[in-house]
Amino acid sequence: MNNPFENAKKQLDLAASIAQFDPNFIERLKFPDRYVEVSIPVMMDNGEQEIFTGFRSQHNNALGPYKGGTRYFEQVNLDEIRALSFWMTFKNAVVNIPFGGGKGGIIFNPKKVSKAELERITRGYIQKIFHLIGPEIDCPGPDVGAGSEIMDWIMDEYSRLSGKKQLAASTGKTLPNGGSNGREEATGFGGGVILREVLSKNLISSERKTIAIQGFGNVGSYLAESVRELGWKIVALSDSKGGIYNENGIDLTKAETHKKKTGALRGLPDSKDISNEELLELDIDVLVPAALENVFTALNAPKVKAKMIFEMANGPTTPEADEIFNKNNKIVIPDILANSGGVATSYFEWYQNIHNEKWTTGEVLDKLHKLMSQAFADVYSIQQKYKTTFRKAAYILALERIKEKML
Ligand code: GLU
Questions:
Q1: Which of 37, 123, 130, 274 has its CA 20 to 30 A from that of 13?
Q2: Distance from the CA of 150 to the center of ligand 1, in angstroms?
Q3: What is the predicted pLDDT for the residue at 407?
Q4: Does domain 31-181 sit in CATH 3.40.50.10860?
Q5: Is the dihedral of CA 391, 65, 103, 35 positive or negative?
């Protein structure tokens, strides 16, 4: 069994081993500052009580308030949440925003409860962690299974309990409730910026310009849009129910309509149904995991034929798989760089809330573009200096920034 938190700490050790950092400093980062498990009793629509389990992990706040998403998923567990909070610390440092790392989650499937139940679960969760969060302390954002409406309830419940309206108590909200223009597409858009920067360095030869995306949720679908603008062919897509393949390229609009209508990508006319495993082993240029962690392990990594792995999910590659990718000369663009556009725009939302401003989509995406390009340039210069992987370079960059504030 792959424990994401153990994997995260291994990544840190591997990066720290090639640069000169005080071992005590590195050791401290292996422990979240604090994490809690809470029980959330909720009266369900049928009149019966159910107790849900939730978590919040606050990893490090040297750079600013803890910041990170909220995951609503049946398989959520404490080690996963601790790992995700850890990655947030590094991600926020890489993209250079004044936030530390945090993450939360509740064990349940949000698709299996009613809207009223979803609201009660969310408000119950905030009541249990209220004393630990706040705009200047720890600011929850969206993640798998928890979108804008849930972020509205978090902000509202926090405001209610604190006795004053506090828009900056969460990010990823709907527009009328203090959300930011551009937040919805931000993670995918930011990934597109990084992909462009990477391709401009000619690290892979790519005459065919083929790409496959595992995961077609918020992140995967907006990344697909950016890729389309680049003139690349998306030959395969998948969701939790399976994948589709078309060597001439999948028509995104048709795929979206089909998924809305049938609830799945499979069965899209003109394309072949494939399994998620088959998608990972396709002979293509770029492979994008955009779902969950532990997708690549020692077992399937040797079978990956793509030249580049572009991590839009958090933690999709175990350290063992990473080693295999390096041996096989694959370029891996790490999660803490590739998917940082989401939280970067959460920072813009938080900033607008605090300063009572409203920026246009153009302004937000323009700022995001600059921030992402700079993050890539910063990682790239370290990668060149140490002649190492992009993952280790991103960690070293983050460590330098955190160290400066922590010591
Ligand atoms: N869930 C996103 C991430 O993993 C963003 C969280 C946020 O905006 O706070 O980066």
A1: 37
A2: 14
A3: 77
A4: yes
A5: positive
